[in-house]
Write a structure and sequence with these properties.
The longest helix is centred in the N-terminal third of the chain and has 18 residues. The chain has a single domain, classed as Immunoglobulin-like. The strands form 2 sheets. The protein has a 6-stranded antiparallel β-sheet, with no helix packed on it. A 6-stranded antiparallel β-sheet has the order 8-7-6-5-11-12, with no helix packed on it. It is mainly beta and 184 residues long.
């Protein structure tokens, strides 16, 4: 049997998967430093996550090429489990943002349905040219049992996701997802 003939197509397939990311966990790529407004940035899974600490809050800008929802989850223990997830979308002139938690490895629900509190403030956003941007702030430590406390200077895993075009809601399955590592 000639193994090189079998390996060449496999190697090509693996190269295509690595280069395309396949809409899955592809890690984040960061920028050199803060922008003019002081926001740091990473992009993974087609979602751009910008953040800035203004103690006692974390200010966030999320954007992606979708007319559906965008989300970020902070400090999961296993896939989505235990992450403090913020998910939002824009429908017309209405911006909807919800404070969720990872109730399982592949599930989330509103903090308020699990005995927690909605700790999102200053929610805003826009949708233009097929790109959705959602902005918000959350406390670094809300005291909510469903939220993971964050500390400036520490490194965290985040999960990023975006819904398919038109998925204006909180339950549609993602069209892309990824993880990244950030330092607040």
């Amino acid at each position: 049997m000639c193994y090189p003939r079998l390996l060449a197509p496999l190697m090509l397939c693996m190269a295509i998967i690595v280069l395309s990311g396949c809409g899955s966990d592809d890690g984040g790529t960061g920028t050199g430093g803060p922008d003019d407004e002081g926001f740091k940035q990473t992009t993974a899974g087609g979602v751009t996550f910008k953040w800035k600490v203004e103690d006692p809050d974390l200010l966030v800008k999320l954007s992606a090429s979708t007319t559906g929802w965008v989300s970020v989850g902070f400090d999961p223990t296993s896939r989505m489990r235990d992450a403090n997830i913020i998910i939002g979308y824009v429908s017309g002139s209405t911006v909807s943002v919800r404070d969720d938690y990872g109730s399982g490895p592949t599930a989330h629900q509103a903090d308020t349905s699990g005995g927690g509190t909605d700790d999102v403030s200053d929610a805003g956003g826009s949708e233009s040219g097929g790109v959705t941007e959602v902005t918000f702030s959350i406390p670094l430590d809300s005291g909510d049992q469903r939220d993971r406390p964050l500390t400036e200077g520490n490194t965290y895993t985040i999960i990023l996701g975006r819904g398919p075009d038109g998925s204006d809601g909180f339950s549609a399955l993602h069209s892309a997802r990824a993880t990244a590592t950030i330092t607040l």
